[in-house]
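INFO batch 0412 | record 1 of 1 | parsing
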Amino acid sequence: MSVGANKSLEFIRTRLEPLLTAHYALAEKVVIRRAAAPEEGSSSETYLLDIAISRNGDTRAEKLVLRIQASDFQVYQDASVDRQYAVLEALSRCSDAPTPNVVLLETNDQTLGAPFFLMECIDGRAPPNAYHSEGVLSEATSADRESMWLSAIEKLARLHKTPATELPFLDRPSLGPTGLDQEIAAWDEYLIWSGIPTHPHIERTRKWLDDHMPEKKPTSLAWGDARLSNVMFRDNRCRAFLDWETVSLGGAETDLGWWLYYDHSVAEGAGIPRLDGLGGRKETIAAWEHFSGRKAEAMEWHEVFATWRFALISERAIMLTEAAGGKLPIGPGDHNPAVCRLGELIA
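INFO prediction complete | emitting tokens
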């Protein structure tokens, strides 16, 4: 589920250096020394930038992240970078949850061919998607892994305490009366928009979700892509939450369900032994409840909802990749682990 970064350093330099020179107060010149794609893929075209800011004879080095709005390879229906920028800007003001500071937003496509934003690059390491078998978590000791996992859960619980009133632009009353109603409706729209083939597990799961709807429907912040591979760590502590394309007011449990589905998919679901120190389902829910100070509601439903959403997204990514002549390690339908997992969960 990634897109390739295909813009040259010279192209980025030519287009962005004047904009950055004007942005930084009293800067005589800003030079982009390096632009590279991150190791892990992203649903947006992404570059890590090394820049040099010259001012009064001194030169200061900084690192930025450039996120360009997806267009050709559009996994998500709403690919707008301005909403992501607005969320990060608001959280920097009203929450102590770890998020990168934003630098600037360009909403037109005249500079880079699509809207984009720049944010600070957090110093640290993010686990790869297959974090139970490689990367920073697999290299750590069991005790350090537990510290990183608990730090991320604690910060996630802290994020969920952000008042929804601080993010009014996320409210979409035309889709439903509560944030969770709106999130369900948004993914119903996504299913139609995505153009993915129908599958019995996807259809039956949607009916199951209606038949087992939670009594409590929250309107509260959900990160949207809550998983360890989107957490930046340094010194065994959570330093930042990354990737905000699917942020919503669907509620904390939608994040927790997503965390649990993804963790299962890269461990037991992939036949990979779970790393010592990384809590499983029971431990993760208990840790979140401890840090949140409340019980997690309707978690069976939220795990199914998360798996259903992941199935839709992965089916869309597979379809786009194959249409472009590429191939992912997984296939569509019965060859998609997320779709197969749906059959297991609602059996």
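INFO post-check: The first strand starts at residue 29 and ends at 36.
INFO record closed
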